[in-house]
Design goal:
137 residues, alpha+beta, two-stranded antiparallel sheet, 5 helices
């Protein structure tokens, strides 16, 4: 079982997804993408795997977004990718890759869509919220 998480330890959602992965008994490959950003080929591969445009993965609430004027629709995909490579903070997270797919896991429970094993025990998030195992009908 191979799971990779593009993680930011300062992000609560990213921490919850990592904890959920570990709760399932999985030891993931952790890539702290602010310290070790993906290269262009990897970023393009992640976008393709998620069927996202660069704008779909762009964080709009961080200083580089406003400073670079990335809200301007004149920015094309290549320009946005270049900006994301130069300023990794512009890339939304956490992105998780499993054999079942690649997903931006916001909210954290969306990880279960691509989890290689099923959630069998409730998982308690940092804020006290509970992710319950799916119920059989």
């Amino acid at each position: 079982m191979h799971v990779t998480i593009y993680h930011n330890p300062n992000c609560g959602t990213s921490r919850n997804v990592l904890a959920l992965i570990c709760h399932l008994g999985i030891e993931p490959q952790i890539i702290e993408y602010l310290q070790t950003p993906p290269d262009e080929a990897t970023l393009r591969g992640l976008l393709h795997a998620m069927n996202f445009t660069p704008r779909d993965l762009l964080r709009t609430n961080v200083p580089p977004y406003a400073a670079l004027g990335l809200g301007n629709p004149a920015w094309d995909d290549d320009g946005l990718i270049t900006a994301m490579l130069r300023e990794p903070l512009l890339t939304n997270r956490p992105i998780v890759v499993t054999e079942k797919g690649t997903k931006l896991c916001r909210p954290s429970e969306t990880f279960l869509d691509i989890a290689p094993v099923s959630l069998r025990e409730p998982f308690i998030k940092e804020d006290g919220g509970v992710i319950e195992p799916p119920t059989a009908y």
